[in-house]
């Protein structure tokens, strides 16, 4: 696991400057709440902040033991901020404390994160996750719906906080995705958040701050993280993840500022998934209902394809429509997510205007809402593609639809 410092955070200048100022000042709040969209680096920033707080050269580090001063000793002037021995506003990356926090083995760093699976295998699951986080510099936390921060881990943590830190001046507790906790866990944490003394700093991260109780939010100093720029995600994928330029452009557009999502979608190649998704438009445009139904069934693998794959397919269609608008109204080729399909985009853009793009987008948005509801996935796909591809099945027949469903 590489040593990521506050200075290394991607595209978060405001949050980085604030956190480095906190470290340099050496005075810390009881708790911090890192909030913002998913996949923008909140968890990485929390560990980098913890690493800076525990660094041996940080401004708030525990002072080294020294002999008692004499009345006759000369007074030495304070070292300037840029002097070699001056306290830092970030982790140095070279001391023993930084080496231990990089591998999550510092005794005063506590890291909680959601896990899924059986309680009897909790220890194995935690060890496997931490090992993967250490070994893979591009590790991304991906949860099942049932993933949560377990009550037993919270109890062990609160029991440890009753003792003094082992080495550093304080303990740092990082709770990733703190919204995945039970109500009784928040109640148990509340006392520690209110009266942590001088030896504990809490760092909570969440993409859903409204799911945290107001009693927790009100006791945290909030640090907001902004969505990542598409160019930032694209540059990271090409430089750090080894993704090809065309695939990186497509992933960055599909991720919508969520680097975690881009990393999880890089295998298999997004170009192949896009081509499979766009192939559904062929029978839809031709009005071949039977062929479209067979294609929809094939895409859904006859019920084996999950709803997340269906949602991703619809998002590929939305990206295609975004590129159609850009091509039609004179955008540069560098702005296209599907740049490798520029010729086909220009051909389609001659026959599709903004009004038609808007109609199709609203159909796709309705399909996305249907996926989240209790609607048959294959019927959602068939209906959406039939309406996107051209005249909806049954439109114009007597009697007309009473709610004008097809008119957007």
CATH class of the largest domain: Alpha Beta
Q: What CATH architecture of the largest domain do you see?
A: 3-Layer(aba) Sandwich
Q: Report the sheet with the most strands, covering strand number, pairing sense and barrel closure.
A: 5 strands, parallel
Structural class: alpha/beta
Strand content: 5-15%
- The CATH homologous superfamily of the largest domain is called P-loop containing nucleotide triphosphate hydrolases
Summed over residues and divided by their number, the pLDDT gives a mean of: 81
- What is the number of strand segments? 5
Query: How many H/I helical runs?
Result: 17
Which runs of at least 5 residues are low in confidence (pLDDT < 50)? 64-68, 75-83, 402-408
CATH topology of the largest domain: Rossmann fold
Which strands sit side by side, in order, in the main sheet?
Answer: 2-3-4-1-5
Which geometry do the CA atoms define? elongated
The string of secondary-structure elements, in order, is: HEHHEHHEHEHEHHHHHHHHHH
Provide the helix percentage: 40-55%
End-to-end CA span: 51 Å
User: Which radius of gyration do the C-alpha atoms yield?
Assistant: 26 Å
Number of domains: 2
């Amino acid at each position: 696991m590489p040593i990521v410092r506050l200075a290394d955070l991607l595209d978060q200048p405001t949050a980085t400057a604030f956190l480095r100022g906190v470290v340099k000042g050496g005075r810390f709040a009881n708790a911090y709440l890192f909030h913002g969209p998913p996949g923008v680096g909140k968890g990485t920033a929390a560990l980098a902040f913890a690493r800076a707080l525990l660094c041996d050269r940080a401004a708030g580090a525990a002072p080294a033991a020294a002999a008692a001063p004499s009345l006759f000793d000369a007074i030495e002037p304070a070292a300037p901020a840029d002097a070699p021995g001056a306290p830092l506003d970030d982790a140095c990356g070279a001391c023993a404390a930084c080496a231990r926090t990089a591998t999550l083995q510092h005794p005063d760093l506590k890291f909680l994160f959601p896990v899924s699976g059986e309680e009897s295998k909790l220890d194995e699951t935690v060890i496997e996750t931490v090992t993967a986080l250490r070994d893979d510099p591009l590790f991304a936390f991906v949860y099942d719906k049932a993933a949560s921060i377990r009550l037993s881990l919270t109890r062990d943590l609160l029991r440890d906080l009753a003792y003094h830190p082992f080495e550093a001046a304080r303990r740092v507790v990082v709770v990733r995705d703190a919204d995945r906790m039970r109500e009784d866990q928040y109640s148990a944490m509340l006392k520690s958040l209110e009266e942590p003394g001088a030896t504990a700093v809490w760092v909570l991260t969440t993409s859903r701050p409204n799911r945290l109780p107001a009693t927790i939010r009100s006791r945290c100093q909030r640090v907001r993280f902004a969505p990542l720029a598409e160019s930032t995600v694209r540059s990271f994928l090409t430089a750090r993840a080894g993704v090809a330029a065309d695939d990186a452009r497509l992933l960055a557009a599909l991720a919508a500022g969520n680097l975690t999502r881009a990393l999880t979608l890089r295998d298999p190649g997004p170009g192949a998934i896009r081509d499979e998704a766009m192939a559904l438009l062929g029978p839809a445009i031709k009005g071949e209902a039977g062929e479209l139904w067979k294609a929809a069934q094939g895409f859904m693998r006859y019920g084996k394809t999950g709803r997340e794959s269906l949602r991703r397919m619809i998002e590929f269609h939305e990206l295609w429509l975004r590129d159609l608008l850009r091509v039609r109204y004179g955008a540069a080729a560098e702005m296209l997510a599907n740049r490798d399909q520029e010729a086909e985009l220009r051909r389609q853009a001659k026959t599709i205007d903004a009004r038609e793009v808007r109609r199709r987008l609203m159909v796709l948005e309705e399909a996305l809402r249907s996926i989240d509801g209790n609607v048959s996935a294959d019927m959602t796909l068939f209906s959406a593609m039939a309406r996107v591809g051209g005249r909806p099945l049954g439109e114009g027949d007597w009697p007309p639809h009473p709610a004008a469903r097809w008119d957007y």
